[in-house]
Write a structure and sequence with these properties.
Helix 7 packs across helix 10. Strands 1, 2, 3, 4, 5, 6, 7, 8 and 9 form a nine-stranded mixed beta sheet that branches. This protein has a five-stranded parallel beta sheet with strand order 11-10-12-13-16, sandwiched between helices. It has two domains: 174 residues, no CATH class; 148 residues, Rossmann fold. It has 14 helices and 18 strands. The N terminus is likely disordered. With 384 residues, it is α/β, with parallel strands linked by helices.
Length: 384
Amino acid sequence: MSNRAVRAILPRPLRALINDNDRIWKLLASRRTERQLEAGVLHSRATRPFADIDSRSLSQTVVTALLEPWRHWDQREKIAVFTGRAFIEPAGGWIICSPGHLVSNCLIDSYGAPKPSFRDYLLTRLAGRGTVIQEPRLIHLRDRGDTNYWHFLNDILGGRLRLAHQAGVSADVPLLLGKRALKQPFVQEILRDTAIGRRRLLIQDDEVFCSREVIHFETPRHSIEAVDFVLSCLGADGGQISGNKRVFLSRLRGSRRTIANLADIEEVCRRWGFEVVEAEGMSVAEQIKLFSQVRHLVAIHGAGLTNIMFRRGAKLSLLEIFPTTTYLARGLTYPPPPHYFWLSHACGFHYEAMFGESSTQGDFQSAFEVDPEALEMKIKGMLA
C-alpha cells in the first residue's frame, strides 16, 4: 500500500495531526495501557540522593550551585515487563504499545527526548513499510544516550542490567542494543572483554522490533549500587591506595565544552605537577588503570569524569570545572549537572567546583574561558 493510499483511509482529523507528534501521541495515550504497564512492575523504589548530604564539609560554591538546587530532587528506579504487542522504533528506542501508546519512562531523560515519528510508525503498522523483526522476548537497552560513556556505564550497565540481574531475569533473554552504541570503541571493548558480550545480542539499526514481552526500566541517575555493579562487570578492583598521580583531564581540541584559553590552564596544571590527559583516546582498560591511581584530579565537566569510580576505596580530591553556573535546555534554565559531585560524595572523595565564563549566557556546550589565577588558588587549596 502506498503512502498516499494509507493517508486516504485515515480519518480527516488524524490526517491533519499526522505531523504533530507531541499532540498525536497524547491523544493516543490509553488508560488501559497505563494499567497494563503498572500491573507488570517487578520492582519500584523512589529515593532522594542529595537529601542527607551534610553541607558543612562543602564549600559555599558547591552548596549554592550543586547541592541546594538538587536537595529535594526525587529519582525513581523501576523494572517492568510489558506483555502484549509492543514495537521498538529505531530512531530513539521508544517502546510503543499497541495501539499507539508511548511508554513514558523507557528512556534516559524521557521527558526531553524527541517523540518518534508518528507518520513512520503508522506506515510501518498499516503499510508494512520497512523491516519488522519479531522477537518473542527481550531486554530493552536502547536509548539516544547509549553512545555516551557516562550514560552507558551508569544507566545502561549499572541501571538496566543491574536491575534485571537483581530481579532474577534469566541471562537467556536477549539484550536489545542500538547499532550507534555498538560503533563506539568503548562499547566494543566491554562486549569483547566481559560476560555481557557472551549473551545473545539484538542489534537495532533501521529495523522496527516487535515483541510480545518487553522488559524495560526507569533507571536512577545516582545509585552507589550501580557503581559497584559496573566495577564488578568490568573486573575493576578499585583504587590503588598507593597511587598518587596528579591529572588534568582535558578534552580534545575542537570538541564541545572545551576551554578557550586551554594553553594557559594546562600551563598552570603542569606547574603544579599535573599530567594532561585526554580520555577520548584511551581504552577502557587504560582508563581503569590510570584513574585507579589518581590522587588529585582537575577536570572539565564531561563523561570522562565517570572514571573516578575506578578510584573507589582510596582517597581522591576532585576539582570539576563547569562552563557556566546555569545552562539552558529546551527553553528552561537548569543548575549544573551534579553527577560527579554526587559520585564523589558517594565514594567518600573530596570535591570542589569552579565555573568559567561562556561567551553566550547559558550555553553549556561551547568553549569558555577560565581564570588561570582563580584555578591556581583552587589547586593550592586542593593540595593543602
